[in-house]
Amino acid sequence: MAQKAKVTLERSYTIGEVDKKMFGSFVEHLGRGIYNGIYEPTHKETDEYGFRKDVAELAKELGISVVRYPGGNFVSSYRWEDGIGPVELRPKRLDLAWRTLETNEVGINEFASWCKRIGAEPMIAVNLGTRGIEAALDLLEYCNHPGGTYWSDLRIQHGYRDPHNIKIWCLGNEMDGDWQVGHKTPMEYGRLAVETARAMKRFDPDIQLVSCGSSHTFMDTFPEWEAETLSHTYDVVDYISLHQYFGNEDGDTANFLARSLETDHFIKTVIAVCDYIKAKKRGKKDIMLSFDEWNVWYHSKTHDDNEMKDNPWQTSPSLLEDIYTFEDALVVGCMLITFLKHADRLKIACMAQLVNVIAPIMTQKGGGVYRQTIFYPLLHTSKFGRGTALRPIVDSPKYDTKDYTDVPYIETVAVMNEEAEELTLFAVNRSLDEPINFACCLRGFEDYSFMEHIALESEDLKAVNTFTNPYAVAPYTRKDSCLNLGKGEFTIELQKASWNVIRFRKTN
Length: 508
Ligand code: AHR
Prior knowledge:
binds alpha-L-arabinofuranose; alpha/beta; seven-stranded antiparallel beta sheet; Immunoglobulin-like
């Protein structure tokens, strides 16, 4: 016997506009993310710049709106100047973050042009680990000044006449973590970040800056880090960053599927700290949230630790190549739903990362490409989740796990696209045992009819996609899952352990 749950939506109970930057990604100079990932000049399917066309097509399919670059941990000891000018003259360097050899074949110009070709906005992190204000200013001038100065003329000389006009800049990366080259105390970071930000905004007050938040909620300094650093940077920054990764190390899937409750708590805590600092400073603006690293990450960790210890200084080795299971896709779906539930304050989210490195897209050197399981929830939310997020009133049966109590079986949110006259509900059924009859009461949408129900389901929670079986886990359109009760009332059957996209459209 199926359990029952209900969501009530009211057209005017809006959360906020979903920013298209919610569907962002991240590419770092790490493993095969760039080299033999987005860029593989010897591959038969490259564009004229040596970037893989099949990868670019999948990034476009995902509708990736913003891409963070060049790190990650990598940025904290990066000299951006190594990546400009004639490729044959660029130095090879040791990258201390991942203990690899960096060839610098790809740098800011190649990356910014690639972003343009895939229709995404670059989001560039400056090095506040080993470097500081001067290097950040030089990079900004090189990228954004039209010409007539040392750095802008150098860009033109390098073949890029038009400025890249990069608008979003991250002030360092995970500076609270002791694994970071140039790790800082909150006071050290806050001072450096505010002075860098002030100088950068002198160049262009319209750029948007992201202050570094905590690397994870389990950091001892969370959330004091946010409070202390923001007390320095509040006036000059626009966003604070959040990073979060989950794993199912102990094989407790019911607990793993509940992890997004932590995402929700994390977001609420960071908003509370931002608002506290705003109040303390008698401020007028709200600091927005940039969830600029998030995903499931654990499958490859032992391999990577050994590889970095035993075989350092390789060029683009296979690192962080998690092969994602079906249950990982459900966690990713729950995280995306949680982001949409905070659309009023969470404006940027970058799945970490895009290709090969903890990524939705996998490539084979000289070979093909496939979509991992986690590709699909990102694809669906990016495609159907643009518009206005609506506050869902959910009545769901609940369960308890090792780490959480009262976990709702149903995680859901809705997005209304007024222009297209469509309404889309995203829902995960966390129950591992039973389908759920999901009653949807759509107030203010009485003239809408059911359009389609797309689902990601699998009998095997550990199912993965591979080069030889790329569609083992793939979405399909469900037939006969919806019962129309009239006047905006529908009941949809959600299979156990499933990701669901339920679409409604105004009846003509
Ligand atoms: O995305 C992988 C790594 O995770 C990033 O380099 C770092 O910022 C985080 O710890």
